[in-house]
């Protein structure tokens, strides 16, 4: 692992290092070449059709041409078009980012590789794996959805009448928002350890289109197969433990809680060890042990970064609810490019009747300008 | 192949032109994409991004006369920009995963003692120099094993050796590399 990590430094290389690395890049195999060429040609055809369609449209708009006048293309048109393209692309990127981030809240980090441990559990596991792999029985699991399919509502933005700063509300929101970052990654709960040797293997319905790293054959990909690895984090022994953990941060109406049951499976109830999975559960309970879906790969999360001079803005405060507006950068604060990586997180909090403590009801990402505008409306320090 | 030859081929048979472009520059583009996505994407992501890039190159050749000028430079630039965009998009979808130099340095520093004055590009250069010093096929084996994340079987095909030879050469080469890095002030 450490050896591989040493080579991570070669990522993001500048041009001269890149040249040296590309010299040792393995050649593209014939079969892969055909596949890549076909993919590229397909995308090219789509783009070409769009370009041709736009041209036809323009010709229609301009009507019949009765004469042709030769003219020089003005020198300023290229920089102007370039600038316009950049603005357009930037808008698209920001729009996409906002959209995807909103949908990425279901979260779950691919577990950190550092947490991988090897134990002597492989004998037992082998039997389980063999049994699971050698069957073609279709399980009775219904909805062919995947764990990633959290449902999120896109809340329209309603500008609050007034905002204020409050140490109490601000600290409450900040504490829970920090915890939200600590416990959830892109597609699930961040666990402190798992054992790839203690794993389960399932065939999956081809309709799911699963094509993932093969944990048993490193470097290879495998189709229609899902691996689950045993969570060794001492905090989690059951699905209920996971839910209770989430409830320390989220309210009962929060999407993570509302969708929780969709993403968990219990052996005997939702699937059997011989099942061909019709959906991908994020977590499963099997033989009194807790496993998580293991898609492979390595991932880390961009940390949230805040500016010291940007307070959390509070709005719509009542005895049992309020909304916090937090200006956040993901990764790093980049003053030169304030639009990239900056967001205004609209965090709705409620006083949870079950615990009589504050919990996050929802988090919605807004454009960074929302925070800037609200801050200009700041009425008083509470 | 020159720009005018590519233009002629494009006029005669766009498919052949595309194929030739990919044959000539595919490895270069793949290396760039892999470099940017290796820590945040899967092999599928690399392939998606790779095909995005070539689709754009094909379009640029047809509509924007991209065959004029320094083709390799143009392809390198498109690949780099596209791969960075793809990485950003991927990061936001997958939970803001990121691959930054600072993070690399922190990760590396946790495993190896690195002189604080050495910046990431300098470190990269030293590492590549030391790998080069190992000579072939060891340097290729190490890069393909630890950087391109290939299996010993795959590497064995590329360097015309058996997988077991690759494995033993790899571990010996890694030991040698550690010694060389230690001599350069980079120690575990």
From TrEMBL, chain A:
This is Uncharacterized protein.
From TrEMBL, chain B:
Pfam families: Sigma70_r2, Sigma70_r4_2. It comes from the Bacteria. The keyword Ribonucleoprotein does not apply. Residues 125-177 form the RNA polymerase sigma factor 70 region 4 type domain. Residues 21-90 form the RNA polymerase sigma-70 region domain. Gene3D superfamilies: 1.10.1740.10, Winged helix-like DNA-binding domain superfamily/Winged helix DNA-binding domain. GO terms for biological process: DNA-templated transcription initiation. InterPro entries: RNA_pol_sigma-70-like, RNA_pol_sigma-70_dom, RNA_pol_sigma70_r2, RNA_pol_sigma70_r4_t2, RNA_pol_sigma_r2, RNA_pol_sigma_r3/r4-like, WH-like_DNA-bd_sf. GO terms for molecular function: DNA binding; sigma factor activity. The keyword Transcription regulation applies. Keywords: DNA-binding, Sigma factor, Transcription, Transcription regulation. Belongs to the sigma-70 factor family. ECF subfamily. PANTHER family: RNA POLYMERASE ECF-TYPE SIGMA FACTO (PTHR43133), RNA POLYMERASE SIGMA FACTOR HI_1459-RELATED (PTHR43133:SF8). This is RNA polymerase sigma factor 70 region 4 type 2 domain-containing protein.
């Amino acid at each position: 692992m450490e050896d591989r990590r040493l080579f991570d430094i070669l990522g993001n290389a500048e041009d001269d290092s890149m040249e040296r690395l590309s010299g040792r890049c393995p050649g593209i195999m014939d079969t892969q070449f055909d596949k890549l060429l076909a993919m590229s040609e397909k995308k090219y055809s789509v783009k070409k059709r769009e370009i041709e369609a736009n041209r036809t449209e323009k010709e229609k708009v301009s009507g019949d041409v009765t004469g042709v006048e030769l003219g020089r293309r003005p020198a300023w048109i290229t920089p102007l078009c370039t600038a316009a393209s950049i603005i357009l692309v930037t808008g698209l990127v920001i729009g996409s980012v906002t959209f995807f981030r909103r949908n990425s809240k279901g979260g779950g980090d691919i577990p950190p590789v550092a947490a991988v441990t090897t134990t002597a559990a492989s004998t037992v596991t082998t039997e389980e794996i063999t049994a699971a792999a050698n069957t073609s029985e279709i399980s009775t699991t219904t909805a062919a959805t995947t764990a990633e399919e959290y449902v999120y509502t896109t809340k329209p933005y309603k500008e609050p009448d007034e905002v204020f700063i409050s140490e109490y509300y601000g600290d409450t929101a900040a504490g829970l928002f920090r915890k939200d970052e600590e416990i959830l990654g892109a597609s699930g709960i961040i666990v402190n350890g798992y054992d790839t040797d203690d794993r389960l293997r399932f065939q999956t319905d081809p309709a799911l289109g699963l094509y993932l790293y093969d944990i048993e054959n490193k470097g290879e990909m495998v189709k229609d197969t899902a691996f689950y690895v045993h969570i060794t984090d001492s905090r989690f022994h059951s699905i209920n433990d996971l839910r209770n953990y989430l409830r320390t941060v989220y309210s009962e109406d929060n999407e993570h809680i509302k969708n929780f049951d969709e993403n968990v499976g219990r052996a005997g109830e939702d699937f059997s060890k011989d099942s061909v999975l019709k959906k991908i559960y994020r977590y499963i309970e099997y033989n009194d042990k807790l496993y998580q879906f293991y898609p492979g790969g390595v991932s880390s999360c961009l940390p949230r970064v805040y500016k010291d001079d940007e307070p959390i803005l509070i709005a719509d405060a009542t005895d049992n609810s309020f909304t916090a507006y937090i200006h956040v950068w993901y990764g790093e604060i980049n003053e030169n490019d304030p639009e990239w990586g900056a967001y205004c997180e609209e965090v709705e909090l409620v006083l949870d009747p079950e615990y009589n403590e504050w919990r996050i009801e929802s988090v919605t990402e807004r454009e960074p300008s929302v925070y800037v505008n609200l801050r200009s409306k700041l009425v008083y320090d509470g | 192949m020159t720009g005018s030859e590519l233009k002629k081929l494009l006029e005669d048979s766009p498919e052949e032109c595309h194929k030739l472009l990919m044959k000539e520059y595919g490895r270069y583009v793949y290396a760039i994409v892999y470099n940017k996505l290796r820590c945040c994407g899967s092999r599928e992501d690399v392939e998606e991004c790779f095909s995005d890039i070539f689709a754009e190159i094909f379009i640029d050749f047809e509509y924007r006369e991209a065959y004029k000028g320094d083709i390799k430079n143009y392809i390198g630039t498109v690949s780099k920009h596209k791969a960075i965009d793809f990485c950003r998009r991927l990061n936001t979808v997958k939970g803001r995963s990121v691959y930054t130099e600072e993070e690399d340095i922190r990760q590396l520093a946790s495993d190896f003692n690195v002189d604080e004055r050495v910046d990431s590009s300098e470190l990269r250069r030293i590492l590549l120099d030391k790998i080069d010093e190992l000579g072939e096929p060891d340097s290729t084996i190490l890069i393909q094993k630890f950087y391109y994340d290939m299996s010993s079987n795959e590497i064995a095909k590329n360097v015309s050796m058996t997988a077991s030879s690759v494995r033993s050469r790899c571990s010996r080469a890694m030991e040698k590399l550690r010694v060389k890095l230690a001599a350069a002030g980079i120690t575990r």
